[in-house]
Amino acid sequence: MLRLYRKPNKGLMGVDISSTSVKVLELSVKSGRYWVESYALVPLSEGSVVEKNILNPEAVGDSLERAINLANTQTVNAALAIPTSMVITKIIEMDADMTSDEREVQIRMDAEQYIPFPLDEASLDFEVIPDRLSNPNRVNVLLVATRIENIEARSEVLELAGLSPKIADVESFALENAFKVFADTLPMGVKTVGILDIGHSMTTLSVMQNNKVIYTREQVFGGKQLTQEIQNRYGLSFEEAGRAKKTRALPDDYDIEVLEPFLEAVVQQAARSLQFFFSSSQFNEIDHILLAGGNANIPGLAKLLQQKLGYRVTIANPFLQMGFSPQIDIKKIENDASSLLVACGLALRSFD
Ligand SMILES: Nc1ncnc2c1ncn2[C@@H]1O[C@H](COP(=O)(O)OP(=O)(O)OP(=O)(O)O)[C@@H](O)[C@H]1O
Ligand SMILES: [Mg+2]
Fold first, then answer.
1. Does the structure show a pLDDT above 60 at 276?
2. Ligand 1, residues 295, 304, 333: which to mutate, most atoms within 8 A of Cβ?
């Protein structure tokens, strides 16, 4: 599997830094089954991470440290995720008959063609894809690259919290890894699955085809819009509005005046995301949509999307077939499950 950066490791904690929270999660394998050993989700103060850029590493490091203490984790070794939009992936055709070292030299020589920044600022990895090409002497190679500074910004935060970063993965690959462990809970015959992650500032559509990620696109749209609308209308602070939206402790006109227009915007955004996918691929249909991200918790949203889009929509839960250690609050993790896909995919790297 691809990693932008790696050291030998065993147990790994998945650490997902998003714009509203840090999430940590540890898994184990017992009796042929995955178990969640520890997990925590700690909110970040507004502005610490903006559209996936870490603006305040100290604040994020503090929240991460709190998450580790809350979760009561077993290891300091961690896997982190680089946002997909910060990564370049490219499929290149090469000679089949090359050693890994020869391939690396060749890729580095040609990399300028593929990477729009200086090579000495890049972290690269590559993997031969096991597809058969019409010419048996050639193979496809998947190249992934990011700026070293993207890895360093995240590693720094982990180190501030006393962790030792061992793997930097790409967010979309972590998602794919998480998807694989619960893909068999989807109805039979489902092959093309859209994972629609509606977060705080971003909405990401990722498409899985036969358990492989084939498409990812981020749009600037999310729950932040709803929080801001609540703030403006009812004169609340950002934090108050964020809380009120979950507890629903809001005036009577909230549903019709605020929530419904937001839900309409979500439907439009989802339809647009799908349209982008269809127009940039050979697909014009998908079999199923998994709703992910914090907004998946809005009651009735999955059903509304199913009605309006005409595809089966369910809420993503990577833990459907997993066990939970006694220290896990099962009710809480069920609530957070749709936001924990990336953390889960990262933690699964322990078992590569
Ligand atoms: N029960 C709920 N009702 C309404 N909104 C909710 C609920 N639970 C969470 N949210 C919203 O979901 C968003 C957080 O979701 P998530 O954790 O997926 O975002 P994120 O990954 O931090 O953001 P981004 O993906 O933009 O970086 C926030 O806007 C939050 O207010
Ligand atoms: Mg997110």
1. yes
2. 295
Mean pLDDT of all residues in 114-141: 90
CATH number for 188-311 (one of 3.30.420.40, 3.20.20.450, 1.10.10.10, 2.60.40.10): it is: 3.30.420.40
User: Are 146 and 88 contacting, i.e. CB atoms less than 8 angstroms apart?
Assistant: yes
Q: Decide: 349 in ligand 1 pocket, CB within 6 A.
A: no
For ligand 1, what atom is nearest to the CA of residue 339? Answer: 18
Identify residues whose C-beta is under 5 A from ligand 2, the ion.
Answer: 18, 199
The mean pLDDT value for 273-282 works out to: 96
At 4 the pLDDT is 58
Question: Are the CB atoms for 25 and 14 separated by under 8 Å?
Answer: yes
Among 109-118, 263-272, 322-331, which is the least confidently predicted range? 109-118
At the top level of CATH, the class of 86-148 is alpha beta
Q: Is 297 in the pocket of ligand 1 (CB under 6 A)?
A: yes
Strand order, beta sheet including 164-170: 5-6, 164-170, 77-82, 13-17, 21-30, 33-43, 323-324
The number of the ligand 1 atom at minimal distance from the alpha carbon of 16 is: 21
197 has pLDDT over 50: yes
